[in-house]
Design goal:
By secondary structure, the protein is an alpha/beta fold. The strands form three sheets. The chain has an eight-stranded mixed beta sheet with strand order 2-9-8-7-6-3-4-5, with helices on both faces. The protein is globular and about 60 Å long. The termini are far apart.
Length: 402
């Protein structure tokens, strides 16, 4: 049997995660300092508390949570999520998913026919680009600046695409501590974006992995919250939230808030693909929220990460050539670096590996054919303070030599 000849057309051209391949390519280099992954620090995992909650949930509620559950998610968890969100939500507007990538897939699968257009920020999260590409969407990018998505470029792109007869289905955005850009969309721009999307009948998928990881500055309401509180009757925004950077990526816990009709169709896809999210982890997360652990835990994570961001920013100021620029986030786990246009970070990636330092080339965060090659992403959440100083020094020396 030659399976290669039997694969579907979509499977034949489907791309794997380039980030995972790049990280794997440097995995066995002794002494490598890696700023490449998006891993949360293991020190932030509430291991002892989670172990206690898992034991209690299975021992006292095992007959229920070890059984098949509701495809929409555990009712106790949804109740606690609504309380955690802190504003008026109906349970029918919430769907629990197996990680946010599953939410993004089910949302996209519910809307996209081959050839439909998805608008994304340039750059944007590679994991979502892979999903959109696999579902045969046409991906068009919109640049970002220090205040987030460029609304003038968005407006002109929408006009151009619609004039060409293109069917634009939604805009995908990461407003808080952008991956990979590190920037956050200003409150004024959030309001302007929602007003524009409402006028233009343009759906927005808001990806929110990092919004609660703010180390300094004023907390900003999500697009979804702004819509709910300031744009009554509007339903253009859906927001996906993950616990991967909060409780543990291995738990695969996330949820999405959206219009009831949208949630219903996404639940239908979840029934077909996953049957149900992990019932035990859902109930553990519900207990974690109900017992009031989340607020203190988030404060601990933010306090833990801030010195690592500060160290990376300080090291960049010390070791980088004057021509190199970078973002200065107030939270999240990434920052974005821009090199002189003549430089190619894809080529520098291999030269940096020889110097035992690693990053992700920025070209991987753009749709195919729309790349910028003089950019790169740095992660500060996984390395030690000493590794950050030494790794940035090595990278700075390399860039100066080039």
């Amino acid at each position: 049997m030659n399976y290669g000849q039997s694969f579907s057309n979509v499977t034949k051209v489907m791309k794997s995660s380039l980030i995972r391949e790049l990280v794997a390519s440097t995995k066995n280099i002794p002494g490598l300092i890696s700023f490449a992954g998006g891993f949360p620090a293991p020190a932030t995992f509430p291991k002892e508390l989670l172990a206690k909650l898992y034991q209690e949930v299975v021992s006292t509620q095992g007959s229920e949570v070890l059984q098949y559950g509701a495809s929409s998610g555990d009712s106790q968890l949804i109740k606690e999520l609504i309380k955690w969100e802190g504003f008026d939500l109906d349970p029918s507007e919430v769907l629990v998913t197996i990680g946010s990538t599953n939410a993004i897939y089910n949302y996209t699968r519910s809307l996209i026919n081959p050839g439909d257009v998805i608008l994304v920020e340039a750059p944007t999260f590679l994991g979502s680009l892979v999903v959109f590409d696999a579902l045969q969407a046409e991906i068009q990018s919109i640049p970002i600046d220090n205040d987030g998505l460029d609304l003038n470029q968005l407006e002109s792109t929408v006009k151009k695409l619609r004039a060409a007869g293109k069917n634009i289905k939604f805009l995908y955005t990461i407003p808080d501590f952008h991956n990979p850009g590190g920037v956050s969309m200003s409150l004024q721009r959030r309001r302007e974006l929602i007003a524009y999307a409402d006028r233009e009948n343009l759906a927005i998928l808001e990806d929110n992995p990092y919004g609660r990881l703010r180390f300094e500055g004023e907390h900003l309401p999500t697009l979804y919250r702004v819509m709910k509180e300031e744009f009554p009757g509007t339903n253009v925004v859906s927001e996906t939230v993950t616990f991967s950077k909060i409780l543990g990526a291995g738990m695969r816990m996330a949820f999405i808030k959206s219009d009831k009709e949208m949630i219903s169709k996404m639940e239908s896809w979840q029934q077909k693909i996953n049957v149900t999210p992990d019932c035990v982890s859902q109930r553990v997360t519900a207990r974690f929220l109900a017992e009031g652990h989340m607020e203190g835990h988030l404060k601990m994570i933010s306090a833990y990460y801030k010195p690592f961001l500060d160290q990376m920013l300080k090291s960049l100021e010390t070791h980088m050539p004057a021509e190199v620029k970078w973002t200065k986030p107030q939270g999240g786990i990434f920052l974005w670096m821009e090199l002189p246009e003549r430089m190619n970070a894809d080529e520098i990636f291999h030269q940096a590996a020889a110097k035992k330092v690693s990053f992700i080339p920025g070209s991987k965060f753009y749709p195919e054919g729309q790349e910028k090659f003089n950019t790169l992403r740095l992660n500060f959440s996984y390395s030690s303070l000493e590794q950050i100083e030494e790794g940035i020094k090595r990278l700075g020396e390399l860039l100066k030599a080039l």
